[in-house]
Specification:
Structural class of chain A: alpha+beta
Distance between the termini of chain A: 26 Å
Number of domains of chain A: 2
Number of strands of chain A: 5
InterPro entries (chains A, B): ArsR-like_HTH, AsnC-type_HTH_dom, Dimeric_a/b-barrel, Tscrpt_reg_AsnC-like, Tscrpt_reg_AsnC/Lrp_C, WH-like_DNA-bd_sf, WH_DNA-bd_sf
Order of helices and strands of chain A: HHHEEHEEHE
Strand order of the largest sheet of chain A: 3-4-2-5
Low-confidence stretches of chain A: none
GO molecular function, one term (chains A, B): sequence-specific DNA binding
GO cellular component, one term (chains A, B): cytosol
GO biological process, one term (chains A, B): response to amino acid
Largest interface: A-B, 49 and 49 residues
CATH topology of the largest domain in chain A: Alpha-Beta Plaits
Helix content of chain A: 25-40%
Oligomer: homodimer
CATH class of the largest domain in chain A: Alpha Beta
Largest sheet of chain A: 4 strands, antiparallel
CATH architecture of the largest domain in chain A: 2-Layer Sandwich
CATH superfamily of the largest domain in chain A: Lrp/AsnC effector binding domain/regulation of amino acid metabolism (RAM) domain
Shape of chain A: elongated
Protein name (chains A, B): Lrp/AsnC family transcriptional regulator, leucine-responsive regulatory protein
DNA sequence: GTTTTTACTTGATTTATGAAAGGATAGAAT
DNA sequence: ATTCTATCCTTTCATAAATCAAGTAAAAAC
């Protein structure tokens, strides 16, 4: 289904999704047209879900990066889930997890004050453990 | 420094970083050239750090997604940090955190067996708590 | 062994990009 | 008020890339 060339294409686009199909073709030893056809196929298959940009969040004012492990005490998760729905401004990722806690939130905030307010609001629906990111490296 | 148009540009590129500068210009009411100039400036400023692709990891064989909170018992973190360096294949993100634990790893594995082996290796340097992702939604 | 499918290339046309030049606007100095 | 300057934008045009339509070749199906 996916051959070596497809994986190479994914790898190249991961490093720079704005490269031209001609450039991509050169990297994987295909013409630009052939590369474009492969990419279109990867999109159809749902392997490639979209293209995005890596933004330096600090530089756009979001200095605080936090992971919040959520322990819902009530039998129904709905109040909590509804709350999360209202917080799209801060919630970057929402994971349902096994292990300690039921959910984990990856969030961004302008300030600790904003984080504090979020935690106050969150605590009306669930208990939590907070981990603030001091430093980060991605591969 | 960053005006409303810049933020709109970042938003648009976040949703689709492969759109042409002409399209982007249309979205933010500029010519393609003006949009391209702004994007170039955002790159120079380090606000835009790069362009990447959203890949469905399951479809390329990485079925297991886990967060691992790491508690290093030894006074020196170096053995652990050196270990992490060797695991770039699995470690997608490495966070230094405050809160419970010293570090948090976001990892991908083909199988639970592979995860198990990773944990065995990790445990030679540090203790950990495991959270496996059951479901995920990003904004 | 022929047909069909798949993956690629080539060539022509449309479209986007990048560079250079010019125009509008706002703020500061005179 | 006027001029200077800087910034940001648009327009124009040459170049490069993307797209579309055939056409080819090799592998797979029958």
């Amino acid at each position: 289904m996916l051959d070596h060339t497809d994986l190479k294409i994914i790898q190249e686009l991961t490093h720079n999704s704005r490269m031209t199909m001609k450039e991509l073709g050169d990297k994987v030893h295909l013409t630009g047209q052939a590369a474009a056809t492969r990419v279109a196929k990867l999109e159809e298959q749902g392997v490639v879900e979209g293209y995005t940009v890596k933004v330096n969040k600090k530089k756009i004012g979001y200095a605080v990066h936090a992971f919040i492990t959520v322990m819902t005490q009530s039998t129904s998760h709905h109040p909590y889930l509804n709350f999360v729905e209202t917080q799209t401004k801060h919630v970057e990722n929402h994971y349902k997890i096994s292990g300690e806690g039921c959910y984990m939130l990856e969030c961004r905030f302008v300030s600790h004050e904003q984080l504090d307010q979020f935690l106050v609001d969150l605590n009306r629906h669930a208990n939590y453990k907070l981990s603030i990111v001091i430093n980060h490296q991605s591969k």
